[in-house]
Amino acid sequence: MPEPVSGPVPARVMVPGEAVGEVLRLDEPLSFWGGMDPSTGRVIDRRHPQVGESITGRVLAMPFGRGSSSGSSALCEAVRAGTGPAAILMGEPDEIVALGAIVADEVYGTSFPVVVLPVDGFVGLVTGQQVEVAADGTVQPA
User: Fold this and answer.
1) Active site residue 68
2) Which CATH number fits the domain that encloses residue 58?
3) Annotated catalytic residue, options 68, 69, 73, 111
4) Strands 114-116 vs 42-43: parallel, antiparallel or unpaired
C-alpha cells in the first residue's frame, strides 16, 4: 500500500477552486453516465471495485475518466442534487470531467476543483485521508 501524501503536491488546474475533504480513491476509472447515481452520489456500476461508495462531498481520486460525453451532464446533475464531489483529482486530464464542473458553475453557481496530479502525487492518495486542494491546485494533507 502506498504511503499517504505527506506534503504539498503541485498539480495542473483544469477547473479552479478550493476544497477540503476525505479522499475516495478509485481503483479503476468511473463512467459518471450510468456508473454513478446523481440522485444519491453512489457508485452503481456493479463491476466497479468501489460499487456502493458515495462520492458526495468527498475528494474523488481517479486515474482517468471513462465513458461517454454524457458524463459531464451526470456530474452537473449530481452538483444540482447536492451529491457531487468536493473535488476531483486525476492522474490524467479528462475534458469531459472538467466540463461537468464548468457547466455546474455556469448553470447552478456551484462548482468543484478538477486538478491533474503528477504520477508520484496521485499514487500517494489514500482512501480516508483528509486533503486540502488549494486555489493553485496544490494538494496536501488537511
Assistant:
1) yes
2) 3.50.30.10
3) 68
4) unpaired
